[in-house]
């Protein structure tokens, strides 16, 4: 029996296996006009191919809850009816081919308004469909980035409401998992990390204050997400600052993550999608196969919150071992699934677990 291809039930939702597609920006929605932020045929075929390929859960790219929350002007959004309808077509297709549709709800904070990555990913201004970014503190991400506007408390409250409204739309569009994007140096991560959050009010300073915005967002999403469906949180389990003595800068640590995982569990989160980094430019990240797995494994070991492991997981037996050994409840694949949408079905064959080939392809099985 393969542990990787056992189903996983969270609340009342059964996900058919533990090979999931990680959220990945595609930077190809319309940047303006009525189709701004609306999923296109690209998104349907890109996400649809991974459902056909056998992924158990497919999480959309970072999907902005307000226009200013997009990472690039070409990102997807979920703040209006047209975007919601565009997603409904995709969730129906994913379900038809046996995958659970999940959406990553996001705000890019001080790393918003940047170019497509294949054009270098540098900040873009209003002349190129960009805008002035906002953040917990008026501290730019790094050289060449604009100084973001510091969010006022009223604006923070409106953003919490925007996450709730986006979750309501996501549910109406047919999604069954809502993932709050709290990682990679975007807005929620900026509040969590002392590296980016220099506030002295109720949203900055102590651990309780820095986690306040994230937990308010989780509460707003949980308030509209049905009891029977799971909410995930994607975290950067470390900023790779404090834990790297040579760096000298202070950041969020894996100790913070363990503590925060317990808070998230108490606030109704069902799984921690455990990534790292992104908040501090120049942090030294020891990327190597499976390098983020120990962070997931530690949360699994020290809390009751289920976890997903992500990052340079590329081999079926590596993925099987992560789940079978109890280091994580599921694995999320990013780039490997870009290279090969059929990875889950081929891994299932290698691990003697069958797979989920569509009838149309039966002659190839
Ligand atoms: C093209 C691309 C786009 C990405 N976009 C997102 C995103 O929207 N949200 C997110 O949380 N992570 C994003 N990531 C990170 C992936 O979800 C994943 O964590 C990372 O690629 C490591 O996994 P891998 O080694 O399997 O690719 C992106 C990665 C890639 C390669």
From TrEMBL:
It comes from the Bacteria. Pfam families: Oxidored_FMN. Keywords: Flavoprotein, FMN, NADP, Oxidoreductase. InterPro entries: Aldolase_TIM (IPR013785), OxRdtase_FMN_N (IPR001155), YqjM-like (IPR044152). The keyword Flavoprotein applies. Residues 4-349 form the NADH:flavin oxidoreductase/NADH oxidase N-terminal domain. One of its GO terms (molecular function) is NADP binding. The keyword Oxidoreductase applies. Its cofactor is FMN. This is 2,4-dienoyl-CoA reductase-like NADH-dependent reductase (Old Yellow Enzyme family). It comes from Planomonospora venezuelensis.
């Amino acid at each position: 029996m393969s542990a990787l291809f056992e189903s996983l039930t969270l609340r009342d939702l059964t996900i058919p296996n533990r090979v999931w597609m990680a959220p990945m920006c595609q930077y190809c929605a319309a940047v303006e006009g009525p189709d701004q932020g609306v999923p296109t045929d690209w998104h349907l075929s890109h996400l649809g191919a991974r459902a056909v390929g056998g992924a158990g859960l497919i999480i959309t790219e970072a999907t902005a809850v307000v226009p200013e929350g997009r990472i690039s002007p070409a990102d997807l959004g979920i703040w209006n009816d047209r975007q919601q309808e565009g997603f409904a077509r995709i969730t129906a297709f994913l379900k038809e081919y046996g995958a659970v549709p999940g959406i990553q709800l996001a705000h890019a904070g001080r790393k918003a308004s940047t170019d497509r990555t294949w054009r270098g990913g540098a900040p873009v201004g209003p002349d190129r469909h960009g805008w002035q970014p906002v953040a917990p503190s008026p501290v730019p991400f790094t050289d060449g980035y604009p100084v973001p506007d510091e969010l006022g408390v009223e604006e923070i409250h409106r953003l919490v409401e925007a996450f709730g409204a986006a979750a309501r739309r996501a549910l109406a569009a047919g999604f069954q998992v809502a993932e709050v994007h709290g990682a990679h140096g975007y807005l929620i991560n900026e509040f969590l990390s002392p590296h980016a959050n220099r506030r002295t009010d109720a949203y900055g300073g102590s651990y309780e204050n820095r986690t306040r915005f994230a937990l308010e967002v989780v509460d707003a999403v949980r308030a509209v997400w049905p009891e029977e469906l799971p909410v995930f949180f994607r975290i950067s389990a470390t900023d790779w600052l404090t834990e790297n003595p040579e760096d000298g800068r202070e950041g969020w640590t894996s100790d913070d993550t363990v503590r925060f995982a317990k808070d998230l569990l108490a606030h109704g989160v069902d799984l921690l999608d455990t990534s790292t980094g992104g908040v501090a430019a120049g942090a030294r990240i020891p990327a190597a196969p499976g390098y983020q797995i120990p962070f997931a494994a530690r949360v699994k070991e020290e809390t009751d919150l289920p976890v997903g492991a992500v990052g340079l997981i590329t081999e079926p037996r590596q993925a099987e071992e992560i789940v079978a050994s109890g280091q994580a409840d599921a694995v999320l694949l990013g780039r490997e699934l870009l290279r090969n949408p059929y990875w889950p079905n081929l891994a299932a064959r290698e691990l003697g677990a069958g797979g989920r080939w569509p009838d149309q392809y039966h002659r190839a099985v």
